[in-house]
Specification:
Elements (H helix, E strand, L loop, with lengths): L5 E5 L8 H16 L3 E4 L5 H12 L4 E6 H5 L9 E5 L2 H11 L2 E4 L4 H15 L7 E4 L6 H12 L12 E3 L5 H6 L7 H4 L3
Helix pairs in contact: 1-2
């Protein structure tokens, strides 16, 4: 695996109900800044997105936000980041974040975070990339996601190796070891049903 210089983090535009999620976002931001890893994220100043970006910037990190113009108009764009890339659509946002990133980390979040997570894992299944994906299961937030993936496999809709398309960890301190140890994508995840 090539060295990781930029990590895209998918996370909520709300803080959620558990203070652990905010602390986890802050910790991840500090760890990334300490390692000199650039944060690529959705460009918001609210929710866990804002918490993460603020923690990175406070620790001297570099932050690139990618946000659609309509969200900037709603005044949720973070003008304090190192670089704010304004795009035309949500689809363009995801594509640009993908292009700028060497790896992906997922914090708790809502439907948008779930959409981004499923899409990046699906692209990996389709062998459109081999970048590591790590999900931080802080407080068990993503346990239902793991259960859903297990059900998809048990139902015969995916090869068991799809469970290796991402790594799930409990906290921010485990992220970089998980990124480094991410397994290669197995061909069977794409070809087993052909």
């Amino acid at each position: 695996m090539k060295s990781i210089k930029s990590v895209c983090v998918f996370c909520g535009s709300k803080n959620g109900g558990d203070p652990l999620w905010r602390r986890t976002a802050e910790r991840l931001g500090r760890l990334m800044a300490q390692r000199g890893v650039r944060l690529i994220y959705g460009g918001g100043r609210i929710g866990l997105m804002g918490v993460l970006a603020d923690a990175m910037l406070a620790a001297g990190g570099r932050v690139t936000g990618v946000i659609p113009e309509f969200l900037v108009k709603l005044e949720v764009g973070n003008g304090s980041v190192t670089e704010l890339v304004i795009v035309d659509s949500m689809h363009e946002r995801k594509r640009r974040m993908f292009e700028l990133s060497d790896a992906f980390v997922v914090l708790p979040g809502g439907l948008g975070t779930l959409d981004e997570t499923f899409e990046i894992i699906t692209w990996k299944q389709l062998r459109q990339h081999s970048k590591p994906v790590v999900i931080i299961n802080a407080g068990g937030y993503w346990t239902p996601f793991r259960t859903l993936i297990d059900a998809i496999i048990a139902g015969g809709f995916a090869h068991p190796a799809v469970a290796e398309l991402f790594t799930m960890v409990d906290d921010a301190d485990s992220v970089f070891a998980a990124l480094a140890a991410a397994p290669d994508v197995k061909e069977e995840v794409l070809t087993s049903h052909l």
